[in-house]
Structures are given as C-alpha cells and as structure tokens.
Amino acid sequence: MSTPPLALARTFLFVPADRPERHARALAAGTGGVIVDLEDAVAPERKASAREGLAASFAALPEAGRQRLLVRINASGTPWHDDDRAAVAALVGQGLIAGLVQPKAERAGDLQRLAEAIGPQGQLVPLIESAAGLAAVDELAAAPQVLRLAFGNLDFQADVGLACDADEVELVPVRLALLLATRRAGLPAPIDGVTADWRDLQRLAADTARARRGGFGAKLCIHPDQVAPVHAALGPSADELAWARRVIDAIRSAGGGVVSLDGRMVDAPVVRLAERLLALDAQPPS
User: Fold this and answer.
1) Beta carbons of 219 and 12 less than 8 angstroms apart
2) Is 149 helix (H, G, I), strand (E, B) or coil?
3) How far apart are CA 148 and CA 189, in angstroms?
4) What is the largest CA-CA distance in the chain?
5) Which residue of 29, 188, 195, 229 pairs with 224 in a disulfide if CB–CB is 3.0 to 4.6 A?
6) pTM of the entire structure?
C-alpha cells in the first residue's frame, strides 16, 4: 500500500473556501497540502454558498492535485457541521479531495462519525486547539483514519488563557504531548501551528526550527510566501545528509553490526536516524 502524499508533506497552506480562484494557485505554490477552509476564513452568511461551490472548483483542478486537498470543516456542535460533513463525504466519494481537517477536535466519537461518513478512503487531521483536546489526544490519535495530528497554537492559547511571547515557551509541554501521542499511535510526525505574521521571515525561521527540534514534521502556513522556507527548514541540511550517507556506507562496508565513525559508535539507533534523514530528503516539494 502506497504512502498517502499528505503523510509526508512538510507544509499545509490554508486558503479560503469562498475564493475558488485561489485553490489552483495554492496547489501550484509548492505546498505539500492545501487546506480549503470553511471555518475561520468564511463569514457565517457565506458558508453555505462556499460549501456548495467546492465540487465545481475541485473538479476543475488536476487529478493529481486533488490528493493533496483537505477541507477544514466547522467544528462539531456548530450550525454548519452536519452540512459540512455531508458535503465533504460527497467530495471524498467523488475523488475530489483526500479528506478533512476537524477543528477543535476533542472527542474520538466525533472522529468516528466523520470516518464513517467519508468512507475508508478518506483521511482525517484533528486539530488540537483546546484543553479538552489535549486531554483526549491519545484517543484522537488512535481514532480510525487519522492521518496526522495538527496543533492549533493560537486557539489553544485563547482556550486556556495563555499570553505567550513569540517563542511560545509555555507551549513546549503541549507540543511534546502531541509528539508522544503521535508516536504511541504510530502516526507520521505531527503538524505544527501557524506563524501569524507572514511577513516576518525571521520569526518564521525560528518557529520552524523549533518545530523541527521538537519532532514536528510539517507546519501550517497562512501565505504562499511561507511555503518554500518552511519546506526547506524542515528538511535535513547538507551536512546532515553527508553524515547520514557516511553512516549508511560504513554499515554496508562492515556488513552490518556496530562500527565506529569519527570516533563515535554507530549502532541501530544511529542508523535509524541516518535513514530518517535520507527519507526526509526524498520528499520533494510538490
């Protein structure tokens, strides 16, 4: 079974659902995934018309690009959720999108119902954005058809009453909890939250470096200009790749087992790290 493209994506670019002219441009921006947003990006009075226009918009897109499309629906308990779920189920059934993003994910039962609605081919990305979502993170990660966990860093701060500085040091335990839940569920690396000021490339670089140090494999983006630097920063550096290739070459030359490289023992965990870095390098921008 092939790996879904979105399992390896490093960038997920938000685009408003009611701006169909931007959907193709978002796919062409080099992002791994596109999240067409029916939630925050669309005013209440426009949600129904935006939802109804998605099928025509997506049908006009290249077939290969559709497997990189997700729709962020409105949260469970909102007036629009049931209609969003039905619409997304139809889009998945027609092969027009890969799946959906569930905002404010807090209950595994909600994900179960979404999985049943969209069918076994549909993928789910729960957004952890609240204290309740964090408390249920293991159950959410283990729910059927969950592809990856994502972190809604701004909504989480609002939910629990944090007033973080730009470095968001207060959120380190939350990000670690998502990483550990991801590992326990055997999911691909989680998706980190947004950098709100898309013009601040220094902040974006710092945020992306923090994401990579913290084990996150992707990041949510709010502007096309964020995509290329995030993709590059979440990949291995030239020095890391050179080291990884030397590790693999040393192990092959020795016929397996434990070897020494630059005075350091190379055992199974080191080999796994080298293999992971080489696998990351094999993920080109879309």
Assistant:
1) yes
2) coil
3) 7
4) 66
5) 29
6) 0.90
